[in-house]
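Protocol step 6 of 9: fold each sequence in the batch and record its structure tokens directly after the sequence line. For illustration, a two-sequence batch is reproduced in full.

Sequence one:
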Amino acid sequence: MWHNQGVPGPPSQPRSARRPPPPLDAAALERLALRYVERFATSRGKLAQYLARKIRERGWDGAPADPHAVAQRMAEAGYVDDRSFAEQKGAALARRGYGARRVAETLRAAGLDEDDRAPVVDEARAAALDSALRLARRKRIGPFAVARPDPKERERHLAALLRAGHDMATARRVVNSAPGEVPAPD
């Protein structure tokens, strides 16, 4: 127990003085991909972006690498499922009160194809009022407010719903609701 006896421990080197990790090769890239998919739910696009970033950071040793091909192999092996990822991500965003526009943008940024995004975005559009009300409850907006807001506060509430990805009609409907009067779905 040298640290309790006042004896200095082994000298630690600053991070910049340490030897940089070796450049990646095909086997190391596969290991990185496997480690990533075991830790995180991801899409092929996000996995390919991660692998490309690692290649830029560490360099490459050998024949040119194709991160998209590695991501495709992971999908074929069943480790990556874009449709399932889209459904899970869309459901999570809807539970937090985000609208269809925000769901669509998040899925697009995750590198999902239109075929995988479309059903989830359609579902988000169908549940627009429910997700807007979830956000309104969390932020105490519209029917969940204590009192009717003044015009400036009303604008802030409207802006919060629009930033969350809700369309103007749904946002106005929620903000214009009197406290305690939850709007019924159409």
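Sequence two, same batch, same settings:
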Amino acid sequence: MSEEYSEAVETAREYYNSEDADTFYFTIWGGEDLHIGMYQSEDESIFDASVRTVHHMADQVRQTINASTRVCDIGAGYGGTARHLVKRFGCHVDALNLSEVENERDRQMNKEQGLDHLIDVYDGSFDDTPFADNSFGLVWCQDSILHADDREVVLKEVDRILKPGGEFIFTDPMQTDDVPEGVLDPILARIHLPSLGSVRFYREVAAKLGWEDLGFDDHTPQLPRHYGRVLEELQRRENELRGKVSDEYIENMKKGLRHWVDGGNSGYLAWGILHFRKPEQ
């Protein structure tokens, strides 16, 4: 794997490695996940809603995954998904993640829970993975591909490492196909990229790769609800974070979360579960 990252990937790596970001996400999300939750009530905890997302996605692949399945989680964060899959199915998970800081927390929690023999954590980027061709029966990703500067390259890399007949399941904050110019600029400025992916984009790339489309499970209303809950939790626990996270980071995070909420409520963002299968050869 190359030690040189693209500008967008390096920007994401530096951000998630920062002490401010690590402390914020580990504290506010409960230290397991960094992804969007599925909420059953307006005041449900971020942790519980995040775990529900993993359960819901796992239900969609329960006929595919078993103890002999090798799974790759790309953009694995703190590794909560890998631990859930290992506990539920007894499979082996390779967790690939850009942030070395998050990965150290991940490895420690795996050891503490006695799961490190079933989970290997790799430092690296999902557009240039360290894995051999046709290695995995399932590739999994949650809310990470938005950080890629070339999302088609990421899907091509997934295709390379998937076994024939293997499946790719993922979520991603996306834009709709009819976004007026400039509407999402505040969000795009936060992730330092000119656009987001879309359901149409991912389906078009998947079609070029010859993948079977297993469906899009649309949960778009959860996106603004999630970022709104994170904003509420940040405001509620702001005094707890003071001195641990810089005031500048906190204020920028508040602004960024409001942009996501406004973007979601504008009708120009989408979120849900995309599911594809690589054809048998």
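Proceed to step 7 once all outputs are recorded. Observation for sequence two: The mean pLDDT is 95.
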